[in-house]
Amino acid sequence: MAESKLRELSTDFAVNIIKLCETIKGHYSLVNQLERSATSIGANIREANYAHGKADFVSKLQIALKECYETEYWIELFVKSEILNREIAVDLYNQCGTIRRILIASINTAKEHVK
User: Fold this and answer.
1) What is the distance between the terminal CA atoms of the chain, rounded to a whole angstrom?
2) Structural domains counted in the chain
3) Beta-carbon contacts of residue 33 (< 8 Å; ≥ 6 apart)
4) C-alpha–C-alpha distance, residues 102 and 92, integer Å
5) Domain housing 108
6) Which of 32, 39, 50, 73 is the least buried, fewest Cβ under 10 Å from its Cβ?
7) pLDDT of 113
8) What pLDDT is stored for residue 2 in this prediction?
9) Which CATH number do you get for residue 6?
10) 57 neighbors 110 (Cβ within 8 angstroms)
11) Each residue of 47-88: pLDDT tens digit?
12) In whole angstroms, what is the distance from residue 9 CA to residue 96 CA?
């Protein structure tokens, strides 16, 4: 159940980031970094579903978690650089934070089952 919710949340988040990136003029390398890290979250979550064992599953989720943290960094940088409006960023932070918390819980649960 949590996995399908996580897939749905990560896809919706990626779509929101893609739509946001389409509205930002200039700063192409930064926009590219944001778009790549945000879309990588869901890609790694999906990849985890086809992992070769629990260790591989955990590894893929950990990569998704790292991408989540990176995405939060880019959003923060965009806000501090006044490229992105803080009000828009709050919703994106919240979405990313929800995904991050679910990933952490999923990783911890999977690690317990490995023992």
Assistant:
1) 22
2) 1
3) 74
4) 16
5) 2-114
6) 50
7) 79
8) 60
9) 1.20.1440.60
10) yes
11) 999 999 999 999 999 999 999 999 999 999 999 999 999 999
12) 9
